[in-house]
Amino acid sequence: MRQHSGIGVLDKAVGVLHAVAEKPCSLTELCSRTGLPRATAHRLAVGLEVHRLLTRDTDGLWCPGPGLAELAATANDPLVSAAALVLPRLREITGESVQLYRREGTQRICVAAMEPPTGLRDTVLVGARLPMSAGSGAKVLLAWADPQTQRAVLPDAAFGERVLLEVRRRGWAQSAAEREPGVASVAAPVRDGNGSVIAAISVSGPIDRMGRRPGARWAADLLAAAEALHKRL
Q1: Alpha helices in the chain, H assignment, sequence order
Q2: What are the domain boundaries of the chain?
Q3: Which residues of 134-165 are buried (b: 16+ CB within 10 A; e: fewer)?
Q4: What is the fold of 8-73?
Q5: 55-94 CB burial, b ≥16 within 10 A, e <16
Q6: Which terminus of the chain, N or C, has fewer Cβ atoms within 10 Å?
Q7: Residues 77, 79, 82, 88: is their CA dihedral positive or negative?
Q8: What Gene3D superfamilies does UniProt report for this protein, alphabetically (predicted)?
Q9: How far, in Å, CA of 98 to CA of 115, rounded?
Q10: What pTM, to 2 d.p., does this model score?
Q11: Which distant-in-sequence residues (6+ apart) come within 8 Å of 215 by Cβ?
């Protein structure tokens, strides 16, 4: 579930943007994804289209507009900026794919990623939305999430509350073939200046290389990278 600002029309407009970002959609599909009445969804989508935040493709479906890319090009994200300095070293040390995830509601979003130059790799594209129900990054983000989010995710998760308690005690999480068959990963929390967990940094790759207990090999380096991000924030 997304955060609400208390400004109804703004929250609805942002909901429309997120719905269209999932996949280009018709008005009927937009109503289904947002739960908005048809007239409201149409009015907001047309308004966002005027501001070039939405556009329509050749099939008449709404999709993200060029205005979003123009705004993003001028945005300054301290976390992503810090990741650009820390992730290359982590990739060099591990020789595996590295990612940085933020939580949004009951999903996690990849906000930064780097892959090894050669060999098999676990490719996660920047902007990809993954479930919070499997994988080491999901465990880390859910371990420090609010109780409401935990209750929403855990019934369908590949792990239980006891695993989250262990993640909080140990300070990192690992997984093997949870999110994708043949893929293992290890993740650690990234904290802001106030000590709150705002992201998860992860190393992932083939189980044949990472092993079924990748934390034994890479947890220390991952925790060091997470601390480096914390200091830069």
Answers
A1: 8-22, 27-34, 38-50, 66-73, 78-94, 136-143, 147-153, 161-170, 207-210, 215-232
A2: 8-73, 78-232
A3: bbbbbbbbbbbbeeebbebbbeebebeeebbe
A4: Arc Repressor Mutant, subunit A (1.10.10)
A5: beeeeebbeebebbeeeeeeeeeebbebbeebbeebbeeb
A6: N
A7: negative
A8: 3.30.450.40, Winged helix-like DNA-binding domain superfamily/Winged helix DNA-binding domain (1.10.10.10)
A9: 6
A10: 0.70
A11: 172, 173, 174, 186
Give counts: helices (H), strands (E), the chain.
10, 8
- Please state, in angstroms and as integers, the Cα–Cα distance from residue 64 to each residue in 14, 127, 210, following that order: 12, 13, 37
> What does the block give as tokens for 232?
């830069």
- For 45, the token pair is 């989508």
pLDDT at position 79 over 50 = yes
Share above pLDDT 70 across residues of the chain, in percent, rounded to a whole number: 96
Residue 149 scores a pLDDT above 50: yes
Do the beta carbons of residue 123 and residue 83 sit within 8 Å?
no
* Collapsed DSSP state (helix, strand, coil) of residue 231: helix
Residue with tokens 């994200």: 77
Q: Are 57 and 24 in contact (CB under 8 A)?
A: yes
Residue 116 sits at the vertex; the CA angle it makes with 112 and 119, to the nearest 5 degrees, is 140
User: DSSP label at 25?
Assistant: B
- Looking at CATH, the fold of the domain delimited by 78-232 is given as Beta-Lactamase (3.30.450)
Whole-number Å distance between alpha carbons of 79 and 227:
13
pLDDT digits (tens, 9 = 90+) for 155-175: 999 999 999 999 999 999 999
Rounded to 10 degrees, the C-alpha dihedral 123/201/199/73 comes to -50
pLDDT classification of 1: cutoffs 50, 70, 90: very low
